[in-house]
Amino acid sequence: MGEHDFRELIREVDRYVEDLYAPPDPALESALRESRRAGLPRIQISPVEGKLLQLLAATAAARRILEIGTLGGYSAIHLARALPENGTLLSLEIDERHAEVARENVARAGLAGRVEVRVGDARELLAGLVESGAGPFDLVFIDADKEGYPEYLEWSLKLSRPGSLILADNAIRGGSVLDPQDESARATREFNEALARHPRLSALVLPLLRERVDGLAIARVLEP
Ligand code: SAH
Ligand code: DHB
Ligand code: MG
Protein backbone atom coordinates (compact mmCIF):
# COMPACT_ATOMS: atom_id res chain seq x y z
CA MET A 1 0.00 0.00 0.00
CA GLY A 2 1.41 3.39 -0.99
CA GLU A 3 1.88 6.24 1.44
CA HIS A 4 -0.97 8.18 -0.13
CA ASP A 5 -3.36 5.24 0.18
CA PHE A 6 -2.33 4.78 3.79
CA ARG A 7 -3.08 8.41 4.66
CA GLU A 8 -6.43 8.14 2.93
CA LEU A 9 -7.18 4.93 4.84
CA ILE A 10 -6.33 6.66 8.14
CA ARG A 11 -8.66 9.53 7.28
CA GLU A 12 -11.47 7.17 6.33
CA VAL A 13 -11.08 5.03 9.44
CA ASP A 14 -11.14 8.14 11.64
CA ARG A 15 -14.28 9.30 9.85
CA TYR A 16 -15.86 5.86 10.24
CA VAL A 17 -15.27 5.89 14.00
CA GLU A 18 -16.37 9.52 14.27
CA ASP A 19 -19.62 8.92 12.39
CA LEU A 20 -20.48 5.97 14.61
CA TYR A 21 -19.32 7.13 18.03
CA ALA A 22 -18.95 10.92 17.91
CA PRO A 23 -21.73 12.09 15.60
CA PRO A 24 -22.52 15.80 15.17
CA ASP A 25 -23.79 17.45 18.32
CA PRO A 26 -25.36 20.95 18.41
CA ALA A 27 -23.32 22.30 21.35
CA LEU A 28 -20.03 21.01 19.99
CA GLU A 29 -20.79 22.19 16.46
CA SER A 30 -21.61 25.68 17.68
CA ALA A 31 -18.49 25.74 19.87
CA LEU A 32 -16.39 25.03 16.78
CA ARG A 33 -18.31 27.55 14.69
CA GLU A 34 -18.01 30.35 17.27
CA SER A 35 -14.34 29.59 17.89
CA ARG A 36 -13.67 29.84 14.17
CA ARG A 37 -15.68 33.04 13.92
CA ALA A 38 -13.64 34.55 16.75
CA GLY A 39 -10.46 33.70 14.84
CA LEU A 40 -9.15 31.12 17.31
CA PRO A 41 -6.60 28.65 15.92
CA ARG A 42 -8.15 25.34 14.88
CA ILE A 43 -6.02 23.17 17.12
CA GLN A 44 -8.66 21.61 19.36
CA ILE A 45 -8.77 17.86 19.91
CA SER A 46 -10.64 15.73 17.38
CA PRO A 47 -14.23 14.54 17.97
CA VAL A 48 -12.95 10.99 18.51
CA GLU A 49 -10.34 12.12 21.03
CA GLY A 50 -13.08 14.12 22.74
CA LYS A 51 -15.18 11.00 23.06
CA LEU A 52 -12.17 9.16 24.47
CA LEU A 53 -11.62 11.90 27.09
CA GLN A 54 -15.30 11.76 28.03
CA LEU A 55 -15.17 7.97 28.41
CA LEU A 56 -11.99 8.12 30.50
CA ALA A 57 -13.41 10.82 32.79
CA ALA A 58 -16.65 8.88 33.25
CA THR A 59 -14.81 5.60 33.86
CA ALA A 60 -12.62 7.30 36.46
CA ALA A 61 -15.84 8.69 38.02
CA ALA A 62 -14.07 12.05 38.05
CA ARG A 63 -15.74 14.74 40.18
CA ARG A 64 -12.94 17.28 39.98
CA ILE A 65 -11.15 17.86 36.70
CA LEU A 66 -8.27 20.22 35.91
CA GLU A 67 -7.52 21.27 32.33
CA ILE A 68 -4.38 23.14 31.27
CA GLY A 69 -5.05 24.95 27.96
CA THR A 70 -8.71 25.83 27.29
CA LEU A 71 -8.75 27.41 23.80
CA GLY A 72 -12.48 27.65 22.88
CA GLY A 73 -13.64 25.08 25.41
CA TYR A 74 -14.15 22.21 22.96
CA SER A 75 -12.28 19.64 25.06
CA ALA A 76 -13.71 21.17 28.25
CA ILE A 77 -17.25 20.47 27.04
CA HIS A 78 -16.41 16.80 26.46
CA LEU A 79 -14.79 16.44 29.88
CA ALA A 80 -17.48 18.39 31.76
CA ARG A 81 -20.19 16.21 30.24
CA ALA A 82 -18.72 13.26 32.15
CA LEU A 83 -19.06 15.06 35.49
CA PRO A 84 -21.83 14.33 37.98
CA GLU A 85 -24.26 17.13 38.89
CA ASN A 86 -21.99 18.54 41.62
CA GLY A 87 -18.73 17.94 39.72
CA THR A 88 -16.40 20.75 38.64
CA LEU A 89 -13.90 21.43 35.89
CA LEU A 90 -11.28 24.16 36.27
CA SER A 91 -9.60 25.12 33.02
CA LEU A 92 -6.49 27.34 32.82
CA GLU A 93 -5.93 29.63 29.83
CA ILE A 94 -3.35 32.34 29.22
CA ASP A 95 -5.32 34.19 26.54
CA GLU A 96 -8.22 36.33 27.82
CA ARG A 97 -9.89 36.25 24.40
CA HIS A 98 -9.78 32.43 24.24
CA ALA A 99 -11.19 32.27 27.76
CA GLU A 100 -14.10 34.54 26.83
CA VAL A 101 -15.02 32.47 23.79
CA ALA A 102 -14.72 29.30 25.89
CA ARG A 103 -17.02 30.62 28.61
CA GLU A 104 -19.67 31.42 26.00
CA ASN A 105 -19.32 28.01 24.37
CA VAL A 106 -19.51 26.25 27.72
CA ALA A 107 -22.61 28.25 28.68
CA ARG A 108 -24.31 27.37 25.37
CA ALA A 109 -23.59 23.71 26.16
CA GLY A 110 -25.45 24.15 29.46
CA LEU A 111 -22.31 23.54 31.51
CA ALA A 112 -21.59 26.99 32.94
CA GLY A 113 -22.40 25.81 36.46
CA ARG A 114 -19.73 23.13 36.37
CA VAL A 115 -16.91 24.87 34.50
CA GLU A 116 -14.60 27.69 35.58
CA VAL A 117 -12.12 29.16 33.10
CA ARG A 118 -9.28 30.93 34.91
CA VAL A 119 -7.00 33.32 33.01
CA GLY A 120 -3.24 33.41 33.50
CA ASP A 121 0.01 31.62 32.78
CA ALA A 122 -0.59 28.02 33.83
CA ARG A 123 2.78 27.96 35.60
CA GLU A 124 1.63 30.68 37.98
CA LEU A 125 -1.94 29.45 38.31
CA LEU A 126 -0.75 25.91 39.12
CA ALA A 127 1.67 27.22 41.74
CA GLY A 128 -1.23 29.19 43.24
CA LEU A 129 -3.44 26.09 43.32
CA VAL A 130 -0.79 24.09 45.17
CA GLU A 131 -0.12 27.03 47.49
CA SER A 132 -3.81 27.30 48.40
CA GLY A 133 -4.16 23.57 49.01
CA ALA A 134 -6.49 23.02 46.02
CA GLY A 135 -7.18 19.51 44.79
CA PRO A 136 -6.72 16.69 44.65
CA PHE A 137 -8.08 16.49 41.13
CA ASP A 138 -9.35 13.13 39.87
CA LEU A 139 -8.25 13.88 36.33
CA VAL A 140 -5.82 16.39 34.79
CA PHE A 141 -5.76 17.08 31.04
CA ILE A 142 -2.61 18.82 29.81
CA ASP A 143 -2.96 20.58 26.43
CA ALA A 144 -1.23 24.00 26.65
CA ASP A 145 2.20 25.10 25.31
CA LYS A 146 4.29 22.02 24.62
CA GLU A 147 7.41 23.56 26.22
CA GLY A 148 5.60 23.55 29.53
CA TYR A 149 4.67 19.85 29.59
CA PRO A 150 7.51 18.61 31.86
CA GLU A 151 6.71 21.32 34.39
CA TYR A 152 2.93 20.74 34.09
CA LEU A 153 3.52 17.08 34.88
CA GLU A 154 5.23 17.99 38.15
CA TRP A 155 2.38 20.31 39.16
CA SER A 156 -0.21 17.73 38.13
CA LEU A 157 1.38 15.15 40.42
CA LYS A 158 1.26 17.62 43.31
CA LEU A 159 -2.45 18.17 42.62
CA SER A 160 -3.32 14.45 42.30
CA ARG A 161 -4.04 11.48 44.56
CA PRO A 162 -3.43 7.76 44.05
CA GLY A 163 -5.85 6.70 41.32
CA SER A 164 -5.95 10.08 39.57
CA LEU A 165 -5.54 10.14 35.80
CA ILE A 166 -3.07 12.48 34.13
CA LEU A 167 -3.71 12.86 30.38
CA ALA A 168 -1.80 14.87 27.80
CA ASP A 169 -2.57 15.72 24.19
CA ASN A 170 0.04 15.88 21.42
CA ALA A 171 2.43 13.29 22.84
CA ILE A 172 3.64 12.22 19.37
CA ARG A 173 3.54 15.47 17.37
CA GLY A 174 3.44 14.01 13.87
CA GLY A 175 6.23 11.62 14.78
CA SER A 176 8.69 14.42 15.55
CA VAL A 177 9.31 12.89 18.98
CA LEU A 178 11.12 10.05 17.18
CA ASP A 179 13.90 12.38 16.06
CA PRO A 180 16.28 13.11 18.95
CA GLN A 181 17.68 16.08 16.95
CA ASP A 182 14.28 17.78 16.60
CA GLU A 183 14.43 20.68 19.06
CA SER A 184 10.72 21.51 18.63
CA ALA A 185 9.82 18.14 20.16
CA ARG A 186 12.43 18.17 22.93
CA ALA A 187 10.03 19.05 25.74
CA THR A 188 7.50 16.46 24.55
CA ARG A 189 10.19 13.75 24.52
CA GLU A 190 11.25 14.83 27.99
CA PHE A 191 7.61 14.63 29.11
CA ASN A 192 7.12 11.15 27.62
CA GLU A 193 10.34 9.90 29.20
CA ALA A 194 9.38 11.32 32.59
CA LEU A 195 6.01 9.55 32.35
CA ALA A 196 7.69 6.27 31.43
CA ARG A 197 10.18 6.22 34.28
CA HIS A 198 8.17 7.91 37.04
CA PRO A 199 7.87 5.55 40.03
CA ARG A 200 4.41 6.92 40.92
CA LEU A 201 2.92 6.52 37.43
CA SER A 202 1.70 3.69 35.26
CA ALA A 203 1.44 5.13 31.76
CA LEU A 204 1.47 4.81 28.02
CA VAL A 205 1.03 6.94 24.94
CA LEU A 206 -1.91 5.91 22.81
CA PRO A 207 -1.19 6.81 19.18
CA LEU A 208 -4.07 8.62 17.49
CA LEU A 209 -4.31 8.70 13.72
CA ARG A 210 -5.98 11.60 12.01
CA GLU A 211 -4.46 14.00 9.49
CA ARG A 212 -1.15 13.18 11.06
CA VAL A 213 0.06 10.84 13.75
CA ASP A 214 -0.33 12.20 17.24
CA GLY A 215 -1.02 10.64 20.60
CA LEU A 216 -2.73 10.90 23.95
CA ALA A 217 -0.60 10.18 27.01
CA ILE A 218 -2.56 8.33 29.69
CA ALA A 219 -1.07 7.95 33.16
CA ARG A 220 -2.51 6.64 36.41
CA VAL A 221 -1.10 7.85 39.71
CA LEU A 222 -0.06 4.90 41.90
CA GLU A 223 0.06 4.50 45.66
CA PRO A 224 3.24 6.12 47.03
N1 SAH B 1 -7.72 21.87 25.00
C1 SAH B 1 -8.18 22.67 23.88
C2 SAH B 1 -7.03 23.08 22.99
C3 SAH B 1 -5.97 23.87 23.68
S1 SAH B 1 -4.86 24.67 22.54
C4 SAH B 1 -9.18 21.84 23.07
O1 SAH B 1 -8.81 20.73 22.66
O2 SAH B 1 -10.30 22.28 22.84
C5 SAH B 1 -3.68 25.30 23.64
C6 SAH B 1 -4.17 26.47 24.51
O3 SAH B 1 -3.20 26.67 25.53
C7 SAH B 1 -4.30 27.80 23.76
O4 SAH B 1 -5.57 28.35 23.97
C8 SAH B 1 -3.22 28.67 24.39
O5 SAH B 1 -3.58 30.04 24.49
C9 SAH B 1 -3.09 28.05 25.77
N2 SAH B 1 -1.79 28.30 26.41
C10 SAH B 1 -0.58 28.40 25.82
N3 SAH B 1 0.37 28.62 26.73
C11 SAH B 1 -0.25 28.67 27.94
C12 SAH B 1 0.20 28.90 29.27
N4 SAH B 1 1.49 29.11 29.55
N5 SAH B 1 -0.72 28.89 30.27
C13 SAH B 1 -2.03 28.66 30.00
N6 SAH B 1 -2.50 28.45 28.76
C14 SAH B 1 -1.63 28.46 27.74
C1 DHB C 1 -1.30 22.14 17.72
C2 DHB C 1 -2.16 21.10 18.02
C3 DHB C 1 -2.59 20.92 19.32
O1 DHB C 1 -3.43 19.89 19.65
C4 DHB C 1 -2.19 21.79 20.32
O2 DHB C 1 -2.65 21.55 21.56
C5 DHB C 1 -1.33 22.83 20.04
C6 DHB C 1 -0.89 23.02 18.72
C7 DHB C 1 -0.82 22.32 16.32
O3 DHB C 1 -1.21 21.52 15.48
O4 DHB C 1 -0.10 23.29 16.07
MG1 MG D 1 -3.59 19.69 21.71
Describe what you observe in this structure:
- The chain has 224 residues and is of the alpha/beta class.
- The chain has one domain: 3-Layer(aba) Sandwich (Rossmann fold), CATH 3.40.50.150.
- 43% of the residues lie in helices and 19% in strands.
- It has 8 helices and 7 strands; from the N terminus they run αααβαβαβαβαβαββ.
- A 7-stranded mixed β-sheet has the order 3-2-1-4-5-7-6, with helices on both faces.
- β6 and β7 form a beta hairpin.
- α2 runs antiparallel to α5.
- The longest helix is centred in the first third of the chain and has 19 residues.
- It is globular.
- The termini are far apart.
- The site of 3,4-dihydroxybenzoic acid has 4 residues, from loops.
- 3,4-dihydroxybenzoic acid binds next to loops.
What are the SSEs and their pairings?
Layout: H1 3-21, H2 26-37, H3 47-59, E1 64-68, H4 74-81, E2 88-93, H5 96-108, E3 115-119, H6 122-131, E4 139-142, H7 149-158, E5 165-168, H8 186-197, E6 201-209, E7 213-221
Parallel strand pairs: 1-2, 1-4, 2-3, 4-5
Antiparallel strand pairs: 5-7, 6-7
Helix pairs in contact: 2-5, 3-4, 6-7
The structure holds S-adenosyl-L-homocysteine (SAH), 3,4-dihydroxybenzoic acid and magnesium ion.
